[in-house]
Amino acid sequence: MPLVDSKAMLIYAQEHEFAVGAFNANNMEIAQAIVEAAEEEKAPVIVQISQGAIEYAGENCLFAIVKSLADKANVPVVCHLDHGVDFHTVIRALRAGFTSLMFDGSSLPFEENVRVTKSLVEIAHAAAVPLEAEIGKVPDAAKGQLSPEEVQKYLTTPEEAMEFYERTGVDSLAVSVGSAHRMKVQSARLDIERITRIRERIKVPLVLHGASGVLDESISAAIRAGIAKINFATELNKAFTAGIKQKLSDDPGLVDVRKYGSFGRENVKKVVKEKIRLLDSANKAEEVLKFIQNKKLIEDKNDKSKIVE
Ligand SMILES: [Zn+2]
């Protein structure tokens, strides 16, 4: 089926206390593994492409891969831009056809983040594409383990989240609640009370980044508190590389990229399937699709009545 946007999908997930997995695809094999896993689990899914992946392969190439996989899939698939860090990247992704966008201005001063996010929301909405933004900052653990004080420093406050949401009109909001990007060990516990307090003030779905390093029980509690989209990247990279390493050590003479690439792909697929079940989005594809279609019918009807007026 054609790609869908993320707006109705995430609203439905939040209302029904599950989360949609947003999985980073850096190449064709990972994108295939994500969509195949979603089909086998009958789950709605978000395939996301980061700014780094765009620098590696180009937005048009990766978008074309995701689109062609979605066209053949029998579950709803979103193609989302993950961490567009400047205005131009977000516009380029919109032009390429992405059906969901993220602008990450979390390293900018608050007022500047509001200003750029608001202008991108207006443009994205004119093209009927939803936009995610980030307030507070999900820290990066790439350089080593973060101390609890460092994680604390970046946490989103409910007050700044509310002000940011009201001034920008974003469709979903990434919040910093105890996770960190690029954690290789699953050990982080989230601040569930903080999620609850943010959720009380903000209507739109909340997004969790850096979930590869979060304990499973903490993820389940976060979903019950209002997190509706959960991003996984590091674990997929790890699984892909481990599959290939294993195959090449078993058969050092192997040179056919298809023969070892498929081992990486199978390993990623296993991880994605586990995450889909953890987020409770397995077997939700049909109801999500119905909700998306009904919402679209109502919106089309409203558009027509506006024209008549
Ligand atoms: Zn992220």
Can you offer a commentary on this structure?
This protein has 309 residues and is of the alpha/beta class. It has one domain: TIM Barrel (Alpha-Beta Barrel). The protein has 13 helices and eight strands. The protein has helices spanning 7-15, 28-41, 51-57, 59-72, 87-96, 110-126, 148-154, 158-168, 192-201, 216-225, 234-250, 257-278, 285-308; strands at 20-24, 45-50, 77-82, 101-103, 131-135, 172-175, 206-208, 227-232. The protein has an eight-stranded parallel β-sheet with strand order 3-2-1-8-7-6-5-4. 50% of the residues are buried. Zinc ion binds at residues 83, 138, 181, 209-210, 231. Zinc ion (ZN) binds at residues 83, 138, 181, 209-210, 231.
- The CATH superfamily is Aldolase class I
Oligomeric grouping of the chains = single chain
Which runs of at least 5 residues are low in confidence (pLDDT < 50)? none
> How many separate domains make up the residues?
1
What CATH architecture label applies? Alpha-Beta Barrel
CATH domain fold name:
TIM Barrel
- What is the H/E string? HEHEHHEHEHEHHEHEHEHHH
Provide the CATH top-level class.
Alpha Beta
In terms of DSSP E residues, the strand content is 5-15%
Bound molecule kinds, no repeats: zinc ion
Report the helical percentage: 55-70%
Structural class: alpha/beta
Shape: globular
What is the arithmetic mean of pLDDT? 94
- Main beta sheet strand tally, sense and closure: 8 strands, parallel
Distance between the ends: 34 Å
Number of strands: 8
Number of helices, where a helix is a run of at least 4 consecutive DSSP H or I residues: 13
Can you list the strand order of the major beta sheet? Answer: 3-2-1-8-7-6-5-4
Q: Any idea what the radius of gyration is? A: 19 Å
